[in-house]
Amino acid sequence: MTINLSLLGEKIKTIRIKQRKTQQQIADDCGISKSLLSKIENGKTSAAMATLSRISDALEVKLSWIIDDQEDKTIEIIKGNNRKGKIEDVDMGYSYERLAKRSKITGIEPMVVYVTPKDITTRQEPYTHTEDEFIYILHGTIDLLYDGETYRMTTHDSAYFDGSNPHFFLPVDNEEAQVLTIYVEK
């Protein structure tokens, strides 16, 4: 397999700049010279897999993404009729539909969560995850149980919270609600 050095270098440079890190910071984290990192970013030299692995670790991205010869798209459009259907399990208390793939650079993942009516919901324990979470109520009313508190939210309300704290969505008046949810990696 031949690696496109220009594309590889461009990906490294783009993610480094988005993370507001200097070449010197990444070079120091990797145990390489700033000059070598500059040459890699500019597509002027190849690097050993071990070096690329250290760079990917320093940038907190997968090595496979760095060496993948696919250019990152600046836009991804998914037509409604091409989107995969809902992922459902009534025992979870919700179903969801992904709106786009998780961004490899920003770590943002959007989806619509369909909050299941209480009479068919058996799960009542809260969720936790490592990402921050933004929610916007598209339709209906929910009680957001967050870190021991209850917040009533209705159509057009929004919230942003730390997903590592226990949280759960419950429908109000036993009616399904639709919640735009965006997970944001920390």
Automatic annotation (TrEMBL):
Pfam families: Cupin_2, HTH_3. InterPro entries: Cro/C1-type_HTH, Cupin_2, Lambda_DNA-bd_dom_sf, RmlC-like_jellyroll, RmlC_Cupin_sf, TransReg_Diox_bact_type. This is Transcriptional regulator, contains XRE-family HTH domain. One of its GO terms (molecular function) is DNA binding. Keywords: DNA-binding. GO terms for cellular component: cytosol. The keyword DNA-binding applies. Residues 12-66 form the HTH cro/C1-type domain.
